[in-house]
Design goal:
With about 180 residues, this protein is of the alpha+beta class. Among the domains are: about 25 residues, no CATH class; about 50 residues, no CATH class. The protein is built from 6 helices and 8 strands; from the N terminus they run ααβββααββαββαβ. Strands 1-2-3 form a 3-stranded antiparallel sheet. Strand 4 and strand 5 form a beta hairpin. The longest helix is centred in the middle third of the chain and has 18 residues. It is elongated. It starts with a helix and ends with a strand. It binds iron/sulfur cluster. Its main location: other.
Length: about 180
Amino acid sequence: MLRQVRGRDRLGRGAAAQSAHTRALTPRTETADRVVDSVCPFCAVGCGQKVYVEDGRVTQIEGDPASPVSRGRLCPKGSASTQLVTSDRRVTTVRYRRPHGTEWEDLDLDTAMDMIADRVVATRRRHWEWEDDQGRRTRRTLGIASLGGATLDNEENYLMKKLYTAMGAIQIENQARI
Ligand code: SF4
């Protein structure tokens, strides 16, 4: 009240109501060593982002005011993308739940890659179709499909499309298109 009367904040909604603790706070972007321009990976809107880095670690991600797409804004998902990089709940190992299993287990990457390759080869062989029931040449497999997530970037999608098409798969989709 005293601060309201003495100062310029007569309505008590600014400096007069601020504690010393709040006054001492600084934005977490202020101490960043560098700021890297990026694009939100979550959806096809492609909002511009500013990635703040301190001591080699991402400390904050904000909307980029210079982006003609989003003009500094991010939706709640884009605003939370810092957690995509920094969350301690982020999964960093290969997780596997075997048939009829009830628990997830860790697998080393080489084992997982071998298992995937074995399954791809076997499935392609089992479901390969040279021609359809009217004798038209198809040379395809309907046994393999791909559904990508929006955090895949253009280059990854390009390579996946190439790989799956080369294998004869035709059901190749991405979450951002659905
Ligand atoms: S901030 Fe939201 S709307 Fe923008 S690209 Fe990311 S997910 Fe899409």
